Queue: 2 jobs
Job 1
Amino acid sequence: MIVSSRAGKALILALFSVSLPSCSRPLNPFESGESQEGERSAIHWSGKAAKELREIIANAPANGLKPDLFLKGGERDQAALTQAAVKYAEALARGYTDPTKLVEVYTIPRPSVDVRQGLTAALANGKLREWFDSLPPQTDEYRALSSAHLHYLRLAAQSPFQPVPEGEPIKRGAHGARVAALAAALSATGYLPAQGQQPTAARYSPAMVAAVKRLQSDFGLETDGIVGGNTLAAVNLGPGGLARETAIAMERLRWLERNPPSTRIDVNTAATFLDYWRNGQHLDRRNVVAGEPDKQTPQIQAPMVNLVAYPKWRVPKSIAEKELLSKGSGWLAANNFTIEDGQYVQDSGPKNSLGIVKFDMDDKQSIYLHDTPAKALFTMPERHRSHGCVRVHDAVAFANAIATEQDVGDQFAKAMAGGEEKFVKLPKPIPVRLLYHTAFWDGSRVQFRPDDYGWDDNVAAALGLVRGVTWQPVEKSEDVGP
């Protein structure tokens, strides 16, 4: 279960009656800069305001946060109340955790807000609750995750969750105690109707198979109805584990700017898909291939500056040493590899690991988007198979669309017709954000993905949540592309 034993079942139940954060934005706290340490006057808490603050922080589970991260319950003095209010406001406005301290690379801009100044104004205007409600993201996705989080907390509080024991994969026609445990687990998370006393033995019925397929679809897994591997791990999250995932997802959303660039490319490397936004409108979603677990695609923001027709691949030294030195000269020649100035270079062409188009980004990590000759990877449920860069499905069509929108379509078409490496500069660089969200809203329901990079545990630990399930390792890719 997600909520610690200190909170207890009674506290969890008490939290379910709280309302979700308001969609309105009576105040805009994100217009001011970072707070300054000096020139601050003491904040006075009346009895009424202190009571309201405690009620507001009691509503923290609606944001995937534990109230005792901010108030232990016995604080009375003015300084302690101010500290709790500022800490909770910071958590809602920018995140409780600092992502740059949780992972090696994180360059995505975070919100900038002076919460102490906003708190002072909210107290003076008698709008404390409205101000706190304005701090977290005011998006449909955040509200959907909040609702799902409270739903899973409620399910987790109803009865202790029992995971399905390890064993052989459960397939159609199976029966016995593990199938009965599976039925109970599916009922606990809402994939099967709630039942009374579960039998000690059961048959893996068509209804159960259908429920497992729904769960597999929600986790981006192959919908074969077989319970083993990551399907078993997903089942064994239980409602508490699902609440954990939605809490982590809300925290990651709080890290992001409230007003991101209206034209941008967002890549969810956990779910391996790309979203293209232009002038605030969502225009496109397509599958991508991201880095393998030991070659993780970092969480960065950088501008896309060039479209590159028929790119050459200048192989990084690390890949050359691990992947190419063991290849024979015949293989290297057959795949158009040469050595230029001591560096392996793969010539342009259909065999090139970058495909026939590259989306050049200006970033210190040398990460970029590109085409690939390995088209079959885009149809696979699990697409963490690159060396860190992001491979884009139907990349040529995507590049053509961007070139046309930026009035360089003719220039890009001419470059593509030439069959040799040619750079086409984008008049308006497009911000690209590489995100890692293992729970997200797809516009109709909340979905989940395995934590292939293991990055959820650091966030969960910082939020005071338990460790998650153990996900099965991703199958290694055999190609050498970036």
Job 2
Amino acid sequence: MTVIWGTNYAIVKHAFRSIDPQAFNAIRMMIASTVFLAILAMTRRPSTGRAEGTIAGIFYTPSPVTRRDWFGLAGLGLVGHCLYQYWFVGGLARTSVANAALIAASAPVLIALASAARGEERIGAGHWLGALLSLGGIYIVVGRGLSVGGSTIRGDLTVFAAVCCWGIYTIGSRSLMGRHSPVAVTGLSMAIGTVLYVPAVIPHIRLVAWGTVSAGTWLAIVYSALFALCVAYTIWYAAVREIGSARTSVYSNLVPLVAMGTAVTFLGEPLELRKIAGAAAVLVGVALTRVKTLNPNPE
């Protein structure tokens, strides 16, 4: 997941040079939703019990989708797909990449706070230390490009609103994930979110001269839809089901490291000592969040 999202960043940024970001998002969401719904249609079969822990358990939903489930999926679609996508893309256009990366890195802390407050997960001292150390590592990596306030404040606040949506989306999935597969929860909520999102960005879609869009841009749209949305989102929710929201969210802080490694490898950007130190802090922070698994504390 982190490899996909980390490498996807450079691909998307390149595509934004020739296509409106919101229009790009709308097309990739429509493609991803279509793929998810097609997979759900192909894997639908009579219930034989939950196939948890298997490949089938990732795709196949043994329980029927109830009316209450549809309300939950609609909420996830609105918050986690429509509002999150709209605000994150819009905020990124109004702030620096460094600001957006650091604000996004606050998500694990927000999710851990919410999970602890709701009593859904036991958050130990090691997890808090790991999350904060990881956040500090992201600051070391991207801190030089920060510019707080002034012309970027609107974009910063919009990105933060998007991060809050992502936290709600992640935590809100827990009850649904107990009965349905990651593909079902992600695909159905994304389809609902896409239905809400596309009408909101029609003016952006109309501004694009689609006949002039290059093959490379279309390839970026398809790649981002299939991998950054379909594959990575499924992995995210599968992880949430298996290891919880708080621990899963910390792994998202590895995304800037992958992006940094991609830039060094393929774009020839210099690898500075501070970036190495920041990367080490992130990795140690993520490792600390796993201490509970390595050294369980039985009641």
